[in-house]
Prior knowledge:
This protein is an alpha+beta fold and 180 residues long. Helix content is 30%, strand content 43%. It has six helices and eight strands. It has helices at residues 8-11, 16-25, 64-79, 83-90, 136-146, 175-179; strands at 29-34, 38-44, 50-56, 93-108, 112-121, 124-133, 150-159, 162-173. A five-stranded mixed beta barrel has the order 4-5-6-8-7. The chain has a three-stranded antiparallel β-sheet with strand order 1-2-3. It is elongated, with a radius of gyration of 19 Å. 26% of the residues are buried.
Amino acid sequence: MIVTVRDPEILKNLQPEIVRTYLETHCWQEVRQIDDKASLWNRHSATSEELEILLPLKPEFLDFPRRMAEVLQTLEIAENRSQLEILSNLLTSAPNITIQGIVTNLQEGAATGKVTLTGVIVGKLRRIQLELAEPVYELAVKAYQARIPVICQGNLVKQGRSFLLQNTHHFTLDLDAWLE
């Protein structure tokens, strides 16, 4: 199945520095920089076709999400991988994202409890760490004990290979998914 990433909220959160590093480590060559607005990259495909990427450097530009979508399309062709797989390597943050998952670990602290969820982020199952204060932590304990899925929102941040959900809110049991 071919998936095209079009969500402007996700695309505008791609960081040009992360994409630049990705291109450098995947045999792309920077041809030139266009002021501080964009950089031009090229690489030969497996069929010796020359591919080109125009990497936008200013997220505040209105066409930034569209340009990042073009970057993903070209990388999909060059690497013969899905855009979701590539995006999972590039995404380092996503503000106000909704996560559905299963509580897989609990660690109670003095004022808060650390919770590990297993949920889907950009098409892959990932472990997500978050902290919850009482009485929401008790809801996480109930979800853990009964294996009830949960839904919550927050700002997702990737740190190394781990994901953190910061400013977690609207933490609720997903009873609809549990009953299915």
